[in-house]
């Protein structure tokens, strides 16, 4: 397996008045393709900062990150949206679905930056929803779906562009135990079927148990 992600000695700190807060301190690791990696640690350990760096919503003060052979700090601002759209998928704890849109329309949003015919966008969105087992709920809006179904829509949206890498922030955090177990089974199956790498920030022991690897952070440092 080849490395899709290389994190090389990244550090990040913030100022709070006169206080210097260390968010990440000299963090290095590699993730191979295709695997599932859990990033674990207590609140304030640096998980969210790390995920933000991987998506290049923020940048390290030192060190660098490479995803699929591209050094993130070398990508021009004008090319970031295209890079994220084609290489990365995102799944969030609170789903982040648009309440006035149907399930299929929410998934189509991820295809909006591409110059695709309307019919092709619709067919690809339907295929993604069928892939996650929710093809029978295409026209339902988020308020008409359970939490688990909403998270499946969010996963379909993350995967519709067939990215190499999916970043998930506490994807089971809003789900009951049974639904969380079903979701993790789905992620494991998609990882194998699509050769998609998942990195999941989590407090959930079940996520850590199903992951191929667990990266543990505490006070911004690998432990």
Automatic annotation (TrEMBL):
<keyword id="KW-1003">Cell membrane</keyword>
<keyword id="KW-0813">Transport</keyword>
<keyword id="KW-0067">ATP-binding</keyword>
<dbReference type="InterPro" id="IPR017871">
    <property type="entry name" value="ABC_transporter-like_CS"/>
</dbReference>
<dbReference type="InterPro" id="IPR017911">
    <property type="entry name" value="MacB-like_ATP-bd"/>
</dbReference>
<keyword id="KW-0547">Nucleotide-binding</keyword>
<dbReference type="InterPro" id="IPR003593">
    <property type="entry name" value="AAA+_ATPase"/>
</dbReference>
<dbReference type="GO" id="GO:0005524">
    <property type="term" value="F:ATP binding"/>
</dbReference>
<protein>
    <submittedName>
        <fullName>ABC transporter ATP-binding protein</fullName>
    </submittedName>
</protein>
<dbReference type="InterPro" id="IPR015854">
    <property type="entry name" value="ABC_transpr_LolD-like"/>
</dbReference>
<dbReference type="InterPro" id="IPR003439">
    <property type="entry name" value="ABC_transporter-like_ATP-bd"/>
</dbReference>
<dbReference type="Pfam" id="PF00005">
    <property type="entry name" value="ABC_tran"/>
</dbReference>
<feature type="domain" description="ABC transporter">
    <location>
        <begin position="5"/>
        <end position="223"/>
    </location>
</feature>
<keyword id="KW-0472">Membrane</keyword>
<dbReference type="InterPro" id="IPR027417">
    <property type="entry name" value="P-loop_NTPase"/>
</dbReference>
